[in-house]
C-alpha cells in the first residue's frame, strides 16, 4: 500500500505548494506517496460555511466547532487513518516520533486555527503532536514538518537510503559537519582527513566530530546519548 497523507486545514493554499515541489513532489509523481489536502470549510455550516464560534465561558478569539471538524475527519480517515492533531499541548515532535509514524500507512494531519478546536475533538484523535514550546497562527507549518519528516523515511523517497541513517538525531547525535568544493575558501580549508581516501579514518573523524558538535551545541542530547551508551553496556557482574 502506498503511504497516504491527508491534511485537514482551513487554508489549503498554504499547504499544497509545499507538497508539489522538491523531494515530496517527485515522490508523489513516482507513486511512492499520496498526499491530499482537504479544506475543512467544505464542511462548514450555513451559507457562509461557518467553522467557528465564540468560546463558552468567554474570552478572546474564536474556537473551531467540533461538529464541523469531526465531519472532515470522518470523511477521510476510513478504517486505517491514524489521526494526528497538531497541538501546542501535544507530545514534542522528535526524530524517534517520526520513525514510529512510518509504521502507519495512512496519516491524517489535523490543523487547528484561531484559539484551537473544541476539546471534544480529542475523542476522534489518536495522537497530539507539538513542534515546540511556541505558538504559531495555525497547524499548517507543523503538519508540513511532520509529513516531511515521516515521508522521507519511507522506502524510495530519498534517492540514497543511507542519507536518513547518517543525519542528525538518527543515532542520537547531531550530524558531523559536511564539506564540498572548493577545498580552500577564504583561508578556511577542508579537513585533510576527508581528502585522504582512507574510509576508516574518515569514519573515525566523522564520529568524533559528531560527538564534539553535539556536546557543544546540544548538551541535552549529549547527556542522553552518554546515558544510553552506558545503559547499553553489558553487565560485568
Task: Please describe what this structure looks like.
- With 237 residues, the protein is of the alpha/beta class.
- The chain is 35% helix and 17% strand.
- It contains eight helices and nine strands.
- It has a five-stranded parallel beta sheet with strand order 2-1-6-5-7, sandwiched between helices. Strands 3-4 form a two-stranded antiparallel sheet. Strands 8-9 form a two-stranded antiparallel sheet.
- Helix 7 (199-217) packs across helix 8.
- The longest helix has 19 residues, at 199-217.
Instruction: Classify the beta-strand content into a percent band.
Output: 15-25%
Could you name the CATH class of the largest domain? Answer: Alpha Beta
Which blocks of ≥5 consecutive residues have pLDDT under 50?
A: none
* Element-by-element helix/strand order: EHHEEEHEHEEHHEEHH
Number of domains: 2
What is the mean predicted local confidence, pLDDT? 93
Global Rg = 22 Å
Helix count, per DSSP?
A: 8
Describe the sheet with the most strands: 5 strands, parallel
Under CATH, the topology of the largest domain can be stated as Alpha/beta knot
Q: Strand order of the main beta sheet, please?
A: 2-1-6-5-7
Number of strands: 9
Specify the helix fraction band.
25-40%
CATH superfamily of the largest domain: SPOUT methyltransferase, trefoil knot domain
Known CATH architecture of the largest domain = 3-Layer(aba) Sandwich
Amino acid at each position: 500500500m502506498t503511504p497516504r497523507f491527508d491534511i485537514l486545514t482551513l487554508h489549503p493554499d498554504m499547504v499544497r505548494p509545499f507538497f508539489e515541489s522538491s523531494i515530496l513532489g517527485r515522490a508523489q509523481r513516482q507513486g511512492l506517496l499520496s498526499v491530499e489536502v482537504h479544506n475543512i470549510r467544505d464542511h462548514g455550516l450555513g451559507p457562509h460555511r461557518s467553522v467557528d464560534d465564540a468560546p463558552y465561558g468567554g474570552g478572546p478569539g474564536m474556537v473551531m466547532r467540533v461538529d464541523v471538524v469531526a465531519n472532515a475527519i470522518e470523511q477521510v480517515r476510513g478504517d486505517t487513518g491514524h489521526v494526528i492533531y497538531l497541538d501546542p499541548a501535544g507530545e514534542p515532535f522528535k526524530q524517534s516520533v517520526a520513525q514510529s509514524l512510518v509504521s502507519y500507512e495512512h496519516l491524517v494531519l489535523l490543523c487547528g486555527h484561531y484559539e484551537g478546536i473544541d476539546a471534544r475533538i480529542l475523542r476522534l484523535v489518536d495522537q497530539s503532536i507539538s513542534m515546540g514550546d511556541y505558538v504559531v497562527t495555525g497547524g499548517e507549518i507543523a503538519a508540513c514538518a511532520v509529513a516531511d519528516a515521516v515521508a522521507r523515511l519511507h522506502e524510495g523517497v530519498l534517492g540514497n537510503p543511507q542519507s536518513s541513517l547518517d543525519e542528525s538525531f538518527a543515532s542520537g547525535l547531531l550530524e558531523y559537519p559536511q564539506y564540498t568544493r572548493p577545498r580552500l575558501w577564504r583561508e578556511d580549508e577542508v579537513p585533510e582527513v576527508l581528502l585522504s581516501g582512507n574510509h576508516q579514518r574518515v569514519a573515525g573523524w566523522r564520529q568524533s566530530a559528531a560527538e564534539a558538535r553535539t556536546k557543544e551545541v546540544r548538551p541535552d542530547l549529549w547527556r542522553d546519548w552518554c546515558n544510553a551508551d552506558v545503559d547499553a553496556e553489558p553487565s560485568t557482574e
